[in-house]
Structure formats: C-alpha cells, structure tokens
Amino acid sequence: MPTAHHPLGIDIGGSGIKGAPVNLDKGQLAKDRLRRDTPKLSSPAAVVDIVAQIAAHFAGDTGDSPIGVTLPAVVTNGVVRTAANIDPAWIGTDARKLLSDRLGRPVTVVNDADAAGLGELHFGAARGANGLVLMSTLGTGIGSALFYDGTLVPNSELGHLEIDGHEAEHRAASIVREDKNLSWQEWADRLQRYYSHVEDLLWPDLIVVGGGVSKKADKFLPLLDVRAPIVAAQLQNSAGIIGAAWLACNGPSPAPPAKA
Questions:
Q1: What is the distance in angstroms between the CA of the first residue and the CA of the last residue of the chain?
Q2: Residue 172 counted as domain residue
Q3: What is the pLDDT of residue 140?
C-alpha cells in the first residue's frame, strides 16, 4: 500500500531551521522534525542549501507535495522586504522563485509569525474564533499575526510599535527578560504596557501568546490585565511548521470581489 504524502513545513529562524511533514487532517507533525543550525552567514544561498537538505531528508514522506517556508521577514508575493535575524542579502530576493527552482516543487513563503498564527487559527488556541484575533509571538523579538473572521491580514509587524520612545520588542521581548534577569512581574509590567497599547489601537477579540516562553504562560499571563481573553498558544514550537504547510496547500483566503 503506497505511503500517504504530506506537505512539508519548514521554519527558518535566526538560530535554527526546522522542518517536518505535516498531517493536515490532524493538525500535527507526521514525523519528528529535523533541525539544522542556521548558518552564521545566513545568505539566501546558504539557507537554501539547508532547506534543500531538509526537503531531501523527508522526500519519501512528502513526494511532490507542496512546501511552505517561513522567514523572519515581511514577505509580499514571495518577495522578501525586510530581514530580521537573517542576512540583509535576503531583502529584495524572490524567495518563492529561488526555493521553487531549487526544490522543483511549489513553494509558498510566509512571514514566520503569520505562519504560527495560521497554525493556531486552524488547529490550536484560536480555532473557531471569530472577530479580530491577534497572535503574538514572544522570543528574540515580538512577532504578530492578525486575523479577521479567519482571514489573515499579513505582515502586521506590531513588535515594532514605538512605545515610550522605545521599539516595543526592545523592551518586552522574551529575550529581554532573560538578558536583564527580570522577574516575571517586572516583565509582565512591560508586557502590560505593550498589550494595553495594542488593545487601544485594535480592540482584538482574542489574544494568543506564542513563542517558547508560552510553555510558562502560567507565570506571566495571570499578571496581565487586558480587555480581551488572552491565552497561551497550543502548538508551541510546531506552530510555524504546521501553519506554513497549511498555507502551502490552501493558499491565502480569497479576497472578496471588487465592487462594480
């Protein structure tokens, strides 16, 4: 009996590149993920070499299925517009074409926080949520993904909001808590300032908090006083892989027809 082929999700980060086939019926990894260190010179050519290795490793599980790839960057129509924690040479690169040509398969490229949000929207903490949903990833920076009635509003970049004269992620990212040895309460005070500001701008109906620190959500989420329900992500470090694979198979939600 032939093996079922699954789409491949690959999550490119500043320190690691992780990939796995994804079972979209269950919303979970079909095989244990494979991780490789991100090259110190994280140029397009060097990173694509690693992506090709991961794709080859899972070739038997994925066949010619589509591939979804995340980048820590603004991505519009497959073209990289910014570069956070990867080489600036990515800026202006048509990553979709570069990866598709190298891998010989259809590739969808998406911002990493947007991919994580898609994973949570379809299979995790935001499943079935209506209205405005904010996915917030706390890590080296602060990533964000916005959804309205299940439709992605891409590349929101809310971690770069200026608050009290500082870029928000330079004050409240998870790495700041670690580097400054902040207590959970001290860090929660900074998060409170950030989330209150975002709420005053957008009035979300639900806030989902992801990133590795979400595993310790009980230590800081109860310290926050926000209007919207605020919950921990459920897919943890697999969210980006799962969301990218989902997008590769389903594409972005179609826009409504233009008015005549």
A1: 52
A2: yes
A3: 86
Task: Examine the domain organization and report whether 154 and 244 are in the same domain.
Answer: no
Give residue 18's domain range: 8-111+240-250
Residues in the chain predicted with pLDDT less than 70, given as ranges, are 1-3, 252-260
pTM of this prediction exceeds 0.85: yes
Instruction: Say if 207 falls within a structural domain.
Output: yes
**Residue 187, both tokens:** 């860090």
- Tell which residue, 149, 133, 130, 106, has the closest CA to residue 244: 106
Distance CA 16, CA 206 (A): 29
Q: How many alpha carbons fall within 13 Å on the CB side of residue 197? A: 17
| Same-domain pairing of 44 and 88 | yes
Do 212 and 137 reside in the same domain of the chain?
yes
* Residue pointed to by tokens 């790495």: 175
How many other C-beta atoms can be found within 10 angstroms of the C-beta atom of residue 34? 15
H helices present in 173-217, as ranges: 174-179, 184-202
**Residue-level pLDDT at 254:** 41
Instruction: Residue 20: give its domain's CATH number.
Output: 3.30.420.40
- For residues 81 and 142, membership in a common domain is answered with no
Tokens of 168: 């928000």
- Structure-block tokens of residue 9: 């999700």
Please name which of 85, 149, 86, 72 lies closest in space to residue 115, comparing C-alpha atoms.
Answer: 72
Number of domains in the chain: 2
Instruction: Check residue 208 and report its DSSP letter.
Output: E
